[in-house]
Specification:
By secondary structure, this protein is an all-alpha fold. Helix content is 83%, strand content 0%. The chain is built from 8 helices and no strands. Helix 2 runs antiparallel to helix 4, helix 4 packs antiparallel against helix 5 and helix 6 packs antiparallel against helix 7.
Length: 219
């Protein structure tokens, strides 16, 4: 009887281990499948972009990011405990995930800048996503600078463009946009200076009129 129980326990452990291995293998296949699907969508987006089909390119990049969203622990940590448990990515899978996200966000920003009516707030948003994942990315710094300048924040735009300029000091586009930011800041400084000068002059005139009134009263 004891031998029968031992054989039964061994069989149960083997079945459990086999089931666990099967689930792990299935999860790995699922992760790889999702990653490859996202890469395929990104590649299709690149083809559309080269063909000047910006709308279709944007659609492919968005779909790729949606596929990757289910694998990104940072995006799903807020709802931890609900739904299926996220698979654990190995280093190669995590690198492919991050690189594909970076490419898609960078390319989305590039697509939006090609449109006749540019949504600079979205360009800024996508570029900042890239900088969160890869600080110092030249393309993202440049586009963040352009978008931020168009949104009216010349000081922050200058900071982004200065960082880009350090990496690509001879890039004509970076130089041009940095010059625009500098000119915008100079104009803002002159306006602010004139405003304070006017306020100071009014204050002085008011004080002078008060002195005259006091003198006349005493006379």
């Amino acid at each position: 009887m004891a031998d029968d129980r031992e054989r039964s326990d061994d069989t149960t452990e083997q079945a459990t281990a086999s089931c666990s291995d099967s689930q792990t293998g299935s999860a790995t296949v699922s992760v790889d499948s999702q990653l490859q699907q996202a890469v395929r969508l990104k590649t299709e987006g690149n083809t559309f972009y080269r063909d000047k089909n910006i709308r279709s390119a944007i659609g492919r990049y968005h779909r790729a990011l949606i596929v990757l969203r289910g694998l990104d622990s940072k995006l799903t940590s807020a709802i931890a405990g609900f739904g299926p448990k996220l698979p654990v990515l190995n280093s190669e899978q995590q690198e492919l995930l991050s690189n594909t996200q970076i490419d898609c966000y960078n390319n989305l920003a590039a697509c939006l800048l090609q449109r006749e009516s540019v949504d600079y707030s979205r360009v800024q948003e996508y570029s900042l996503h890239v900088l969160e994942l890869r600080p110092g990315d030249i393309k993202a710094l440049y586009r963040a600078g352009v978008a931020t300048l168009e949104l009216g924040d010349a000081q922050s735009a200058r900071q982004y463009l200065m960082q880009a300029s350090k990496e690509k000091p001879n890039d004509a586009n970076v130089k041009r946009q940095l010059q625009r930011a500098e000119e915008r800041l100079s104009k803002e400084y002159q306006k602010e200076k004139a405003l304070y000068k006017g306020m100071f002059s009014q204050q002085k005139r008011g004080e002078g009129q008060g002195d005259v009134a006091v003198t006349q009263k005493h006379v």
